[in-house]
Write a structure and sequence with these properties.
By secondary structure, this protein is an alpha/beta fold. It contains ten helices and 21 strands.
Length: about 500
């Protein structure tokens, strides 16, 4: 009898951990301003990204996956809430001192994982506001923020690397803050006595592009947007940001090997200012933007090595994508334009960051989950906003009525079982939601504004005429078919108005 019990115990000891790990760990990796054509697995020939290529080889690579918007804050808001950002005012690109815009009383992506028993963390860029108002004390507890909308642990910088304050926050507090050197931030007027890029360009190690506003307080030899005083000990060095985030992400994974976890790992590359670690400078021969992408790829490789050495790789679902399309000159003279050498950041697409054209929202998107995705390519129409409802389906969690109403359960598409995905997707350019996709057709409403944004060198998609494209035969949106198919234009225009009026 003792032998029977011993045998039963040994069987259970093997099976129980496996049963406990039926819920996959989930890591969502968000690049910043990475284009559809920036990875070699998406056709880049001037850049080689072996680690992301390997992720795609063992996963599912999407060719028709989108962010909701062509800029960062709105895309991140949609990911968190499952709601089109243009349904709520105040979801445009936020300054570094903005108040929190994610609702605390509604479902969010991290809350969904928490209610499913996951440990949750964000490491990296946030850019969804902090505190209850613009005026805030950076020297005490800064909240509400990521913790209040569903994360157990938070290690972030507040907005973007080109905006003050240039500090890390761990949970509610600025890291390494000296109480004798308090932080003050203002986006309207200069504070303190720190030099600015406009007043002292001779102090800059990277020159700002004229007229783009990156010439305020100098931090680490780089002019920023906005003014900051104090916090000198707490200010990060650009060359160390990526490795710091990587270390914090690795630490979270290491500490949660026995509990399912959701890690929102939101990288800064290749957003400006592009100032990669010394080991990557000059490596791409495409300027600092190319170097930053190689740094990003290396970081992914380190993450994959950690998962494998920890024995977590077989039960970890990784999603890699970007918040919006690419931009070259976005405020700094860093070689991105002058050293492009034939590289095409948006691949075959027109437009880029800020644009209603496909280059603004069609993203590289890779899903890797061993045993579920393996070396496949999908043309299904999917959106980052759909992850909330899709994970609710995977984890059998309910979504409160009236919340996350724009998120669709596309789990079958994300796992390669459904080749269609969404029926309809609305796309938002720099400000307005002017474009809609249905099947192979894309329609862009007539919209005022320059058709070409000269400061960043990108087509906006604006036109006084309606635009209709067949994306199946014309992914580059080169042939406007609006005059040939007036009935389809009316149908698509009515559809866009219905969705926006919902």
């Amino acid at each position: 009898m003792k032998k029977i019990y011993l045998s039963l115990f040994m069987v259970l000891s093997v099976l129980l951990p496996a049963t406990a790990q039926q819920k996959p760990n989930v890591i969502y990796i968000y690049a910043d301003d990475l284009g559809y054509g920036d990875l070699s697995c998406y056709g880049a020939t001037k850049l080689h990204t072996p680690n992301l290529d390997r992720l795609a080889q063992h996963g599912l690579r999407f060719t028709n996956a989108h962010s909701t918007s062509a800029t960062c804050t709105p895309s991140r808001y949609a990911l968190m809430t499952g709601q089109y950002p243009w349904r709520r005012t105040g979801t445009g690109i936020l300054p570094g001192d903005a108040a929190l815009i994610v609702p605390q009383d509604k479902i969010t992506l991290p809350k969904l994982f928490k209610q499913a028993g996951y440990a949750t963390a964000i490491v990296g860029k946030w850019h969804l506001g902090l505190g209850e108002k613009v005026e805030k004390d950076w020297n005490g507890e800064v909240k509400p923020g990521p913790i209040e909308v569903g994360f157990d642990y938070s290690f972030i910088f507040p907005a973007t690397a080109d905006r003050v304050p240039t500090v890390f926050l761990e949970n509610h507090r600025v890291v390494a803050l000296d109480p004798a050197d308090p932080i003050e931030v203002d986006y309207q007027k200069k504070v303190g006595h720190d030099p600015t890029g406009k007043e002292h360009p001779e102090l800059l190690k990277m020159k700002s592009s004229p007229g783009q506003g990156h010439d305020n307080t100098i931090v680490n030899g780089i002019g920023r947007i906005g003014f900051m005083s104090g916090g000198h000990q707490a200010r990060w060095v650009d060359e160390e940001v990526s490795s710091t985030f990587m270390e914090k992400a690795a630490q979270f994974i290491d500490e949660h090997q026995k509990q399912p976890f959701f890690l929102y790992y939101t990288l800064t590359e290749p957003h400006v200012p592009r100032m990669p670690a010394t080991q990557f400078k000059g490596k791409s021969e495409l300027g600092y933007r190319g170097d930053a992408i190689l740094q990003l790829d290396w970081t992914i490789g380190q993450l994959m090595k950690q998962l494998k050495s920890s024995g977590l790789d077989q039960n970890t679902l990784i999603i890699f994508t970007s918040d919006n399309g690419p931009v070259l000159d976005d405020g700094y003279q860093d070689g991105a334009v002058t050293m492009l050498k034939g590289h095409t950041p948006a691949g075959p697409l027109r437009g880029g960051k800020y644009s209603a054209l496909e280059g603004g929202t069609r993203m590289p998107f890779i899903v890797s989950w061993p045993g579920h995705t393996q070396g496949k390519v999908s043309d299904a129409l999917v959106c980052q906003m759909d992850l909330l409802a899709s994970f609710a389906g995977l984890l059998k969690q309910g979504i409160p009525a009236g919340e996350a109403g724009d998120s669709e359960n596309l789990l079958a598409a994300f796992l390669g079982k459904d080749k269609t995905g969404r029926k309809v997707l609305v796309e938002q350019g720099q400000r307005d939601a002017t474009a809609v996709i249905q099947g192979e057709w894309k329609y862009i409403q007539p919209h005022p504004g320059a058709s070409y944004m000269g400061d960043v060198g990108i087509e906006s998609g604006n036109s006084t005429e309606p635009q209709l494209y067949n994306l199946k035969s014309d992914i580059g949106e080169k042939r406007n078919l609006a005059k040939q198919f007036p009935d389809k234009v009316k149908e698509m225009d009515d559809l866009l108005r219905r969705v926006k009026g919902k």
